[in-house]
Fold each of these.
Amino acid sequence: MEAVKVGLLGLGTVGSGVVRVLARNDEEISRRAGRAIRVVRAASRDLSVRRDCDLSGIALTDRAQDVVDDPDIDIVVELIGGTGIAYEMVLRAIDQGKHVVTANKALIALHGNEIFARASERGVTVAFEAAVGGGIPVIKAIREALAGNTIEWLAGIINGTGNFILSEMRDKGRDFEDVLSEAQSLGYAEADPTFDVEGIDAAHKLTILASIAFGIPLQYERVYTEGITRITREDVTYAAELGYRIKHLGIARRRDSGVELRVHPTLIPHRRLIANVDGVMNAVLVRADAVGSTLYYGPGAGAEPTASAVVADLVDVTRALTVDPNNRVPHLAFQPEALIDLPVLPIGEAVTAYYLHLRAQDRPGVLADITRILGDLSISIEAVLQRQPAEEATDASIVIVTAAVREANMDEAIRRIEALDTTADHVTRIRLENLN
Ligand SMILES: NC(=O)C1=CN([C@@H]2O[C@H](COP(=O)(O)OP(=O)(O)OC[C@H]3O[C@@H](n4cnc5c(N)ncnc54)[C@H](O)[C@@H]3O)[C@@H](O)[C@H]2O)C=CC1
Ligand SMILES: N[C@@H](CC=O)C(=O)O
Ligand code: NA
């Protein structure tokens, strides 16, 4: 049978990885797909850059639309990134009846509702396994392998750069900026690395995971998002003394009144498998009613791990070319007309335990004032750690771990604690999840 012809947009970290993997595993891939898969044309903004792959046999251009408009091309692979030209080219490809494979989570999180509707109208598929968890087949697992379950919640380490930074800072005492530059040179980081460290990339991915888990439309703008830039070495140390690790998690939880969607640093008991996911590795823990807990683990970023997911999508799309479009796996796991508008709850309605760290004068009665405030707001204390001031300082450090509480109650407690004369005017709070 004739080879499937692929047009590639972007020849950066992931694009080059895709060219390499397709070439190296050509035979295995054809045996699986039933046909060979060939990149015949590729676009890159700067053609003078040396690529880490063999481009012989691939017609090159610096204009993405040359690839999209090429009538020979069956599948367009978008690996440019962002929501500008990538958005235009994906819609243009769909309008021409071409299937699309993309690793672009920003594009899917922000414009997926429109893109999938347009793709369904045109009877084409937009595949996006690489958009979440890099090489981990987590979209496929949730969308297909858990299809018999009601999913209750999921929690994931879904940004490789952020996890790499936190792990290197904790284990080797390295500097934030220094580790970030290394993540950039390894090709892990986004074009704008604030997307990684401010939690935006994780929020894009959580948006996608929540949609396919619960059958709700993509709603990136409703995700509560905090990054990792304010985590201090001191908090990492205190958390460890109390038996926890700090991880940057994306959490989606179904409640009676709606769904929680939140991305933030989180204390997790150090014995949990997910607490031991380090470096560029990602992991997504899914709690579902029939199967119980399942954990998906693997490299969350990098050229070939991400290419692995892109190429798997190419094989899926190739196999589905002959399938009636109505019988393909739906983009968001549930049939488009079966998506439901579960309300996304405001962060004040989230229910979690907390780690609090504050500085207070080292004299009698101070801790009693603090515990009274917590008690007045029905917040139970699980553990307290007190550290005397260093010689030159006058304030002691007090660390408190609480039981689960509605976030709005904790907001009020923190406001009252900060207003005490005996405390410094900033309480650090980090949410804590037992994940059991
Ligand atoms: N690097 C990674 O580990 C992962 C990246 N992704 C996603 O994959 C996509 C690509 O990421 P990377 O390969 O890391 O980016 P990159 O910056 O290494 O490569 C982007 C490529 O797009 C090309 N490009 C930019 N503007 C263009 C235009 N107007 N016309 C034609 N080509 C243009 C650039 O020349 C470059 O070849 C992004 O959506 C990213 O979020 C997803 C998972 C992991
Ligand atoms: N910048 C992202 C790349 C993969 O999605 C990350 O670090 O996870
Ligand atoms: Na994936």
Note: The chain has 14 helices and 17 strands.
Amino acid sequence: MSSMKHIDNIPSTPGKFKEKSSYNRLRLHFSIAKLTFWSFVFLGLIFVCFFRSPSSSSSPASSDLSRRSLRTSSYDGPAWEKRIKASAKIRSRNGISVLVTGAAGFVGTHVSSALKRRGDGVVGLDNFNDYYDPSLKRARQTLLEGAGVYIVEGDINDVTLLKKLFDVVQFNHVMHLAAQAGVRYAMENPSSYVHSNIAGLVNLLEFCKNANPQPSIVWASSSSVYGLNTKVPFSESDRTDQPASLYAATKKAGEEIAHTYNHIYGLSLTGLRFFTVYGPWGRPDMAYFFFTRDILKGKSISIFEGANHGTVARDFTYIDDIVKGCLGALDTAEKSTGSGGKKKGPAQLRVFNLGNTSPVPVSDLVTILERLLKVKAKRALMKLPRNGDVQFTHANISFAQRELGYKPTTYLQTGLKKFVRWYLSYYVDGKKSAQ
Ligand SMILES: O=C(O)[C@H]1O[C@H](OP(=O)(O)OP(=O)(O)OC[C@H]2O[C@@H](n3ccc(=O)[nH]c3=O)[C@H](O)[C@@H]2O)[C@H](O)[C@@H](O)[C@@H]1O
């Protein structure tokens, strides 16, 4: 208050020397006050930025990514630990304890609930980002909570969170399904693929290799790694060095990274190449899902075709078949051989195709949807865009059949019928808006 008075008393036209020097003293005083004020503002800003960042280990590109993540790191406190322990409790004789990353995702939800149903201990981890409508992820979370699966809210890049989780539960397995999915979105937001599929994977493996005991890891690769491969059906030994999208390149990189961690640290690693997985609670960014939405809205849909009107087809695989493959991979996964960052012997390293073995043209997919929805689609044929899509996928699954007992049994018609029934009950009867 008194300094305010002084400032008010400063003559507008300093005249005599004496007056001038007292004016200078006042100016100095004012400058120090100003400097102190701005220093506080600056420190305050640093404080706010630091504590609002999702984790101290996040990548430089994470400012954009943290906006996509609604909330992270919900950890801490005895109540939190109690919920995790309850969720991780094994209820069957030969049960396993599994950390499922991406548990609020499409495949993650189905795998978590199947594991829980058979008596395994399951804890989920998901960052609930808004790549697609997060309310669908929240609905899946509610479903899992009802089944006794708790999902921790956080990012796989958060080392502190991973440490806390492993301090509370000694997981024998990690089912790593958290990823930035989608082939076409990679051109829009390339850094999100690097953040989740590369940095996130490395962070998780770094953590697992140091764990004692090391868990065994089963993780989601993708049929897209076959890229421009023309030899069909695709076998695991076929070339995968010609990815057609950044998404495929990050999944392929993941397979190489898995090799390294297996080789150096003795981590047991199994990669699953999923072939266009579809079904109830699916991903709204996938064609069968948004075709359904747009057909019901009377909007036209683009059906891609190759050069010279060539057929574009996918080996669409139903979610329940995929879940069986995931469980088969977990059940046949051998123990990692290292501990505390040191390898003690060779460890298991596997890659499997999980497909349906019967590719269906996209136009046939639309015909099935029309029949199930009882609405005629407004079809617009479009040349396959050069943004990462490949013309054809077809899995050879004999290796998975032999090693995992994997045997898909769902025809596209049957699977889509189940999807459409779910879609109508969720969006139409449930009055949710399909974005
Ligand atoms: O199998 C895989 O590895 C991949 O499967 C899907 O990728 P994709 O097969 O391209 O699935 P959709 O995006 O649902 O496309 C299905 C088919 O519809 C076609 N399509 C897509 C969009 C569209 O507007 N029109 C259209 O004809 C695509 O070319 C493709 O043949 C997933 O999005 C990936 O995350 C996954 O890794």
Note: DSSP finds 14 helices and 13 strands in the chain.
